[in-house]
Task: structure prediction
Amino acid sequence: MCVDTQHVVGDDFAAVLAAAQSGSEEHFAVLWRDANPALVRYLRVLVPDAAEDIAAETWVSVVRGLPAFIGEEGAWRAWLFTTARRRMLDQARHLRRHPAEPLDEIGVAEVPTAPGAEQLALDNIATESAIALLARLPEQQANVILLRVVAGLDTEVIAEMLGTSTGAVRVAAHRGLRKLEAMLTGPGVTSRAGV
Amino acid sequence: MPDSQVPPIWGPAYDERDLEALLSGETGSTPPALQPVESTLAALRGAATRRELSDEAVARAAFRAFVPVSPTTGPLPWAAEAEPAAVTSHTLVLPPADHRQQPAARHRHRRRSGRSARKPSIAVTGAAVAALIVVATVVTGALTGSISELTSFGRQPASSSASARATEQSPGSERVLVTGAARDRIPSPKPTVSSPPAPRPTPDPSSLCGEYFAYFGHPPPGGREAWSSLGGQLAKLAGSPSKIGVYCLRHPYNPFGGKGAWPTPGTFTGGFGAGGGDGPGTGSLGAGSVGAGSQGAQGRVATEQGQSGDPAAAVGRP
Result:
């Protein structure tokens, strides 16, 4: 699992997209492996309880509109995360209308385990910690930072997605970074620089 | 003041450009205060975990369900050099969707304009055809006969009541307007039985022509034989049957004259003598009878003329 979340496809994006639109499942899998980790991380920060479900619904919507999509990689990612955001809002609206009671918690002995789970947890602890930190930020600031860092979108595209100005997007991102820096350098937290 | 004695600058050790560089992923010049943030953002950009890639089968299933799978899928772009062909095929597939709608819109527009332009032409053509029919009808006089016949039913116009005048002229008639089929039902007096045969005056050529050509406008039932005999008389007067028209042109018929123009059974007294038919016989005008070979109706005509009650007796009688 050495797939990076950033620009795996790169310059070949047009060819891969065309093949996927023509019905090539393998090329669609390339697109999926490129974008799904970032999508899941974005959703895990904003909707931790339903991140995988919303990601799956997002991909269903994307697949249905895939033959008609026209654009480069940036537009592709913008479309993907815009669709995810809409599905996320639909999920939140549905939970408000139909509140669900949590099931009984599963015992520790019943938790499914996989070979190398401990190692996997160690490998991903930095990512999990980062997601946990961002989840503590205000939603708008975390949203902007994730779209900039994880999705790799420009300020203008994010402003269009969120229906706000580029200045507001930039201010929200900077405030989020300052707050993140304050959390990391606060009491009880030892930074790598030792400040 | 030496530089070592300069007081330290209080406040954040970074600015907006440093934050933008962090967001853009630029590394190398990160201020020390932002290095923990840089580490966190780098972790967010880190490699995908197994958990994040565990739903690939679900995504593939959705892809197979909603996108028609092509039978031949080319190799991955980094494994082969077929990118331009794929891009070209993608580019060429999309435009037909747009072009498919344009002919329909153009077709609708053309159909609308065609309808609007055709309406006046259709109206003008129809009016012209109707006017042509009316003019042709008036010129040829096709409606004249039927119209005059309709108008003469309740009254007695001079031109169409020739038979009525003939009835009035005959002695002992009931002075009843007799037209059409009623002519057969109303019994006419039998002069052959009750009165001696009166000498018939020599028919006027113009009245003969009138009676001859009136047959075309008012053919009486059973009057074909009388018309034939009349034609024989006119042919005799004119010299040949083909000269009847010229003869009648020289003796134009005056419908307002005193003579009746329509033959009644009593007025047809002439015949062609023996041999009958249309051939010139021995009988003279007013004295002959319909010859043998004729049908029963001809025998009735001979009976009415007072020659004999036996049709066979009239055969060959001069």
